[in-house]
Structure formats: structure tokens, C-alpha cells
């Protein structure tokens, strides 16, 4: 009994150990550099330019461009840490590794605060650590890890408010939710969740509940309101897009969403079964989940004591949040908002759904504990089956997670930089007086470490609206090339074609790099070689 009390007393220490393991494993994976993509370059450049005093934005060959598409808080945090003199690129990797540890800890700690079950809380942290997609997300210089930390912190603070009714905890929960919005705009779903949940499940009269629901609403919306006012003052679209376009979602996107959700139950094995069985698994899991939550929340062990009421109401909080997140997620695909592709790949779908995995996991474990108590009361056989299911899922997760070290993971631009050091050296050796023009602005900026001009697009890739200034912009590019600029063309696959290939036909190739999947070629005007 004494040993059990000591174990309970130091649950936080066990969770910290698991968090430390997560941080260490993350740092091992990114030892050659944190993953980077186009979005990552905008975030990192945003932080660098804040440090330099330009403001939140990117520096191109033709000058500073304020950023309105990507919310700023991730860059603000990087810039704040950058005062210590560490490069933003290195900070991004270190920060996201630490955030992985924080998310592992917070997931387990929320479970412990709700259930006082050491085994359930440690189990929650272990599953969070072993979630392959979540781990990979933390190895990239992206804002999702910070968004998840703020979400979990808000959910923990609202639990404090739920226990003692103190408004400072409610205000802090609203602040964390508000900061999550200016980290990723989908965070608006958490602000809406807090307001609705307090209105329905708060303590006291309707008037008191309404007044308290306003607190996280105002505090949560204030940061994004400031960001939008700033954008409007710059005469820029407030969310990075000048138009909204309604369009149907391709069936492939629905399939990738279903596969992502199903993989949370059967990680690593979906690629081994035909599509029909994937559909059957998904439909079966959704029906089972619906029944599980219905009976667990409505019937199993429902009592009127405060602890049970807290437990049940918190389940409603998580369910409302997941519903609002899903609504926001689907809605942003239907409407071409900032950063919402019209045809997401399965990889992108996984990226945008994975941040809610720990919240989903908390809800699953709460429901499991209810069912586990029910079946245990029927005899040891039923209890053993419940424990056996948990061990089976742990085996699935561990096997899938271990593939990360057997096969490795792709780290985007960082992978290209490490694979083609000669290309990086050549671009950095180009005279700074000779401008660089890029078909992929973010990649070339990342590799060359200097501002570059961007080859104009034929139209907005999200809305499909044609670029009315294309002729003049191309004329400007041609003028730069005539004056000695170097054009860097990135093709995936290597035989990809562009509308400006006729321009390249009049140029001389300086050098080309690539493999079976990509090619990166440098061009200059005839007679203007290095």
C-alpha cells in the first residue's frame, strides 16, 4: 500500500521521464537539421525579420513583404528565443522537440487530474509518444506543435476552472485558446468550444454562465483581431487570400481523412489491406466509437456526485471541441481560405488532423476506463480482455513507431540541402550583385540563405483566379535576366513543365543537380556564365 501511494505521488515524475524520452528521440532524428518546407521558410523568415526590426514578413529580392497568410505567434516565439543568439533554424528544431515533451506530459497530466489513475495517465503519455504521425510533425519547423501545446494547456486550465470556479483560470484558458488561433487559425474552434461549453455546463444562473462565457470569447478573439487589423492596415487581405471560392472536395480527400482516423486505431497496417477492408474498418470504428461514447457518457456509472459530474462534463467539452474542429477543418477545404489547398494529399490531411490526436486519445481513454470498470465487475475474464486490447494497441503503436528508426523519415528541404552540398555551395558563391530568381522561392531562399526573386505564377493556386499582372511581371523577370540574374528552376518530377519554359530555351544552363525524383537547374543569359 505504501509503495502504491509513493507511485501515485510521483506520477508527474514518470510523465516527465516519458517527456524527456520524447525530446531525446526527436533531437536524435533531427540531428542533421529540422525538417523544412515552404511554410517553414515563411515562419523562420518571419522570426528572422522580427529580430532584424523589419516586422513579421519575408525578404524577397524586390524588398520586404509583410506576411498575412500565416498567423504570427510561432514566429514571435522563435524571434523571442532568437535574442539568445542561436540561429532560428536551430531554434525551430529545439523548440519543437521541447514542445513534443510538453505535449506528452500535458496529455498524461490531464488524464491524471481527471481520473487520479496513474496507469491511465502514463498510458496516455506512452501512446502520445508512440504516435508516429505526431512524432514526425514535431520534427518539422511547423506551427502545429505549438498549436497543440496551447490547446492542451487551455484544456488543462479549463479543468482548473471546472474544479474551483475561479475566473483567473478561465481567463488564462481563453488566453491560451486565443494564442492558439494566432498560431493556427483553426484554433478558433477551441474558443467557440469554451464559450458554448461554459454557457451549457457552467455553474450558476444563465446570466452568470453567459457573463463567464464572454470571458474566453473576448480574450480568445482579441489576438486574432489585432492580427487582422494589422493586416488590413497594410492594405493586404486579412487572411492572405483576396477571394473565397466554394468548391467540392474530391473523393480522395474523404478517403485520406478516413485512413488517417483509422490509422489511430491500427497504425502501420492499413497499407497491407485492400480498400474495401479499410472502408469496413473505418465505418465499424466510427459506429463503435459512437456507441461507446453514448453509453459511457449517458448511462455507465452516471451519478450526481461532483467528481462524476466533472468527469462527464469534461467528456462533453472534448466532444464539442472535436466537432467544432472537424467543422472548421471541412469548411476550410470547401472555402479557399489562407493555406487551405483545394486538393489535399493524404500527407497534408494527416498533418492537419494529427494535432487533435492527443485530445481524441484523452476522450478514448476516459471512455475506456468507464467500460473497463463495467466489464471488470463482471469477472476477471472480461477485465483481462480489456487489458489485452490495450497491450495489443501498444504493440501496434510500438511496431509502427520503430519503423521511424528502421526506415527514417523525409525532412523536405533539409533533405535536399544535405543531399546536394555542392548545389548549396554554388548558390552561395554567386556574386551578391547578381540576383537569384526562383521557380520555388522558399526552397532557393532556404538553400542560398539570401533574398531571391520569385517567378510569378499564372494565377492563384487556391482560388484559380488568373494573375492580371503576369505580362508585366514576366517583363520584369526578363529584364533582371538581361542584367545578369540567375534563374533557379526546381522540377518535381524532373520532366515537369512550366509555362515559362520558352524563356528558358533562350538561356544557358550553368549546372544541374538532382536524382530520380527532382532536378534543380541554374540558368543564365547566353554569355553570362559565372
Description of the structure:
The chain has 530 residues and is an alpha/beta fold. The strands form two sheets. It has a five-stranded mixed β-sheet with strand order 4-3-5-7-6. It has a two-stranded antiparallel sheet with strand order 1-2. Strand 3, helix 20 and strand 4 form a beta-alpha-beta unit. Helix 9 packs parallel to helix 11. The longest helix is centred in the middle third of the chain and has 29 residues. The radius of gyration is 25 Å and the shape is globular. About 2% of the residues have low confidence.
Strand percentage: 5-15%
Helix content: 55-70%
Structure classification: alpha/beta
H-E order: HHHEEHHHHHHHHHHHHHHHHEHEHEHEE
- What is the alpha-carbon Rg in Å? 25 Å
**SS summary, helix count:** 22
* Uncertain stretches of 5 or more adjacent residues: 299-303, 337-344
Instruction: Let me know the number of strands.
Output: 7
Shape estimate? globular
Straight-line N-to-C gap:
78 Å
Largest sheet: 5 strands, mixed
Averaged pLDDT, please?
85
Q: How are the strands ordered across the major sheet?
A: 4-3-5-7-6
